[in-house]
């Protein structure tokens, strides 16, 4: 990978096979930056594969399409140092990127890590690497490349590569489908609300913020059983409903009282709160929600239905009264 900022040398990696740990690393040259790379490789072990060349080369199964996404996490924007550990920052940043593959029902085949590391974070580098490695290991995906540079703010840009024979889209909802969500919502938003008010969040809410899980296996299972439109709830349920409605040009009718809510969570946390890595999707009536819960240990809940419309629209009710959905997180809202 080329094109790093002037004065900084790039961290270059390559994977020549999909097999975990099958490719040996190419010898990395001398220098302080590459000493840091060697440190990270010592943390990652066989989670990293074929490091040292100019680019990653990955094999996909016959008939699969490449699915690629990039996600950036920046200190004081997506997290604060007082809230979570460096290891948790690495973990949640990687899981957030992998969640974009889950939203497309794509199987992960590679992760690239671009890390901007300020000097006052240098002692935390191995902890960051450990969190990144844990997320990759839990998702059964190798770390195959990246870039390392210095800067004023800690920033992690995670690029994820996946394969899917039939990637799902937010534009595929059909009239007659039911609307579902996985998991229990509101924990991350409640944790941020507590931190910003000077309180400590509950263990459940904090864990939901610091150690989220990308629903990759769940998404693949759902796609095999007829899931149509799908999106992850990274910017808030209200925003994601609007995205599906507009992309699919349908009316989504949602009962907010049916949205599963965690302990100590306000209903607005479930609608407006971001940083959820749960899935919002549509599927035909009759999805086996009991089998899903039994296999994955998390619930899937029907919260509404899809109806025809000339343009995308969301109709939400709470206690039988129609409510206007508030938007979730928007980096550029005024």
Notes on the protein architecture:
This protein is 29% helix and 22% strand. The protein has 334 residues and is α+β, with helices and mostly antiparallel strands. It starts with 31 loop residues before the first helix and ends in an 11-residue tail after the last strand. The longest helix is centred in the first third of the chain and has 18 residues, at 86-103. The protein has two domains: 32-164, PurM-like, N-terminal domain (60s Ribosomal Protein L30, Chain: A), CATH 3.30.1330; 178-321, Alpha-Beta Complex (Phosphoribosyl-aminoimidazole Synthetase, Chain A, domain 2).
> Low-confidence stretches at least 5 residues in length (pLDDT < 50)?
1-23, 328-334
- Beta-strand share of residues: 15-25%
Based on secondary structure, the structural category is alpha+beta
Average pLDDT across residues?
85
Widest sheet: strand order?
Answer: 6-8-5-9-7-10-11
CATH top level label of the largest domain? Alpha Beta
Helix content: 25-40%
Distance between the termini: 35 Å
The H/E string reads HEHEHEEEHHHEHEHEHEEE
Number of strands: 11
Based on CA atoms alone, the radius of gyration comes out at 20 Å
The total count of helices amounts to 9
Number of domains: 2
> Can you summarize the main beta sheet?
7 strands, mixed
Give me the CATH fold name of the largest domain. Answer: Phosphoribosyl-aminoimidazole Synthetase, Chain A, domain 2
Shape designation: globular
CATH level-two architecture of the largest domain: Alpha-Beta Complex
């Amino acid at each position: 990978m080329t094109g790093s900022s002037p004065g900084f040398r790039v961290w270059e990696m390559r994977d020549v096979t999909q097999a975990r740990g099958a490719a040996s690393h190419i010898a990395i040259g001398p220098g302080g930056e590459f000493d840091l790379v060697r440190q990270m490789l010592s943390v990652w072990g066989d989670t990293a594969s074929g490091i040292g060349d100019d680019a990653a080369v990955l094999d996909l199964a016959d008939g699969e399409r490449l699915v690629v996404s990039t996600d950036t996490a920046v200190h004081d924007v997506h997290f604060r140092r007082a809230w979570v550990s460096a290891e948790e920052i690495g973990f949640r940043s990687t899981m957030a990127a992998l969640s974009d593959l889950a939203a497309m029902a794509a199987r992960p085949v590679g992760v690239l890590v671009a890390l901007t590391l300020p000097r006052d974070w240098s002692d935390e580098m191995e902890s960051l690497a450990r969190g990144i490695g844990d997320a990759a290991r839990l998702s059964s995906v190798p770390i195959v490349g990246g870039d390392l540079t210095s800067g004023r703010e800690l920033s992690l840009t995670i690029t994820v590569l996946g394969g899917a024979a039939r990637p799902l889209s937010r534009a595929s909802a059909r009239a007659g489908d039911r609307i579902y969500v996985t998991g229990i919502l509101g924990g991350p938003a409640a944790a941020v609300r507590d931190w910003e008010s000077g309180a400590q969040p509950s263990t459940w809410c904090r864990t939901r913020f610091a150690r989220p899980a990308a629903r990759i296996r769940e998404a693949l299972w759902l796609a095999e059983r007829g899931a149509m439109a799908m999106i992850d709830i990274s910017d808030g349920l209200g925003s994601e409903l609007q995205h599906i409605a507009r992309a699919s040009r349908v009316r989504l009718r949602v009962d907010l009282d049916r949205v599963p809510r965690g302990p100590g969570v306000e209903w607005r946390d479930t609608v407006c709160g971001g940083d959820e890595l749960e899935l919002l999707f549509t599927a035909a009536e009759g999805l086996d929600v009991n089998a899903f819960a039994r296999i994955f240990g998390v619930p899937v809940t029907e919260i509404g239905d899809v109806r025809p419309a000339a343009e995308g629209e969301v109709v939400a009710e709470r206690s039988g009264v129609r409510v206007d959905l508030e938007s979730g997180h928007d980096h550029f809202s005024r």
